[in-house]
Amino acid sequence: MLNSNEIMKIIPHRYPFLMIDKVLEVEAGVSAVAIKNVSANEQQFMGHFPSEHVMPGVLIVEALAQTGAVAILSLEENKGKIAYFAGIDKCKFKAKVLPGDTLELSVKIIKQKGPIGIGEAVAKVDGKVVVKAELKFAIEQ
């Protein structure tokens, strides 16, 4: 298990853009499972939406990408590098995510050729899928 301080040793993201609070599991280069505790105190809820706080889908996808980055950047040969977004495919938003929810984020690397790869990403709340996507990444060379 990794806390936020340990996560920041692997990925370059910092507050307010560090979107994962804890990593429950990581198999370097293969998969990672992380948690994001959604709080009404987060800045995005000032404007999204003032009358009904809903976590922006793009931030859920970013949390998934950061989870995948932990998996791929945990490999010894990738330590200290950056994993960049290279594309998003098959993205589906299935339910709203609200303050008080705990996002369970999982990413499995399903394909990699050189610095380019694809992760199968799923976000759940209370065991229910809220987002699914294929995330493409490019590792800094």
- Number of helices in the DSSP assignment: 2
Largest sheet: 6 strands, antiparallel
Briefly note the CATH topology name.
Thiol Ester Dehydrase, Chain A
Based on CA atoms alone, the radius of gyration comes out at 14 Å
Q: How far apart lie the N and C ends?
A: 28 Å
Query: Order of SSEs, N→C?
Result: HEEHEEEE
Number of strands: 6
CATH top level is Alpha Beta
Going by helix content, strand content and strand pairing, the class is: mainly beta
Q: Give average pLDDT, whole number.
A: 97
Tally of domains: 1
Short account of what is shown:
The chain has a 6-stranded antiparallel beta sheet with strand order 1-2-4-5-6-3, with helices on one face.
Characterise the protein shown here.
There is one protein chain. The protein has 141 residues and is mainly β. The chain has one domain (4-139): Hotdog Thioesterase (Thiol Ester Dehydrase, Chain A, Roll), CATH 3.10.129. The protein has 2 helices and 6 strands; from the N terminus they run αββαββββ. The chain has helices at 4-7, 57-73; strands spanning 22-27, 31-37, 83-93, 102-113, 116-125, 128-139. The chain has a 6-stranded antiparallel β-sheet, covered by helices on one side. Strand 4 (102-113) and strand 5 (116-125) form a beta hairpin. The longest helix is centred in the middle third of the chain and has 17 residues, at 57-73. It is globular, with a radius of gyration of 14 Å. The protein starts with a helix and ends with a strand. The model has no long low-confidence stretch (mean pLDDT 97).
